[in-house]
Design goal:
- This protein has helices spanning 24-38, 85-100; strands at residues 2-6, 15-20, 44-46, 54-55, 59-64, 70-73, 78-83, 107-108, 116-121.
- The chain contains two helices and nine strands.
- Helix 1 packs antiparallel against helix 2.
- The protein is α/β, with parallel strands linked by helices.
Length: 126
């Protein structure tokens, strides 16, 4: 599984942090890491530190927050995703189809009005 950042998708300044190039077994590993994160006291998890994820041009840390803010960054290299527990639970549900069969589909992992979306896509496309 690879992690990267794509900026300047359109004239509105939209960007994507994406997890891509993975199979069902790695989707399960990522889902299980999120389940572990949400069930413990730890306030954050560094995605690039997970052994099955290769970071290409950015880092991403998931934080537990009082509000769903989505992904933010000050330098377009180090990203922080701030979601509520409910937001992370919804994300886990969105991952389920990738954990039950191989697919070439994709899923944006939250629906928040922010400049940076979080894409989960085995083929890297949307």
């Amino acid at each position: 599984m690879k992690l990267d950042y794509i900026d300047g998708l359109n004239g509105f300044g939209d960007n994507i942090v994406r997890l891509f190039d993975f199979d069902m077994s790695e989707a399960i590993l990522f889902r299980d890491a999120l389940i572990e994160f949400t069930s413990h006291e730890s306030p954050f998890i560094k995605i690039a530190d997970l052994e099955f994820i290769e970071s290409r041009n950015c880092t991403l840390a998931l934080f537990k927050s009082e509000e769903d803010e989505g992904i933010i960054s000050e330098d377009d290299k180090n990203f922080f995703c701030a979601l509520t527990m409910e937001g992370y639970q919804k994300m886990i549900q969105l991952l389920e189809p990738f954990c039950t069969k191989e697919t070439k589909g994709y899923q944006f992992l939250y629906d928040i009005d922010s400049l940076t979306d979080f894409l989960f896509s085995p083929a890297g496309t949307w």
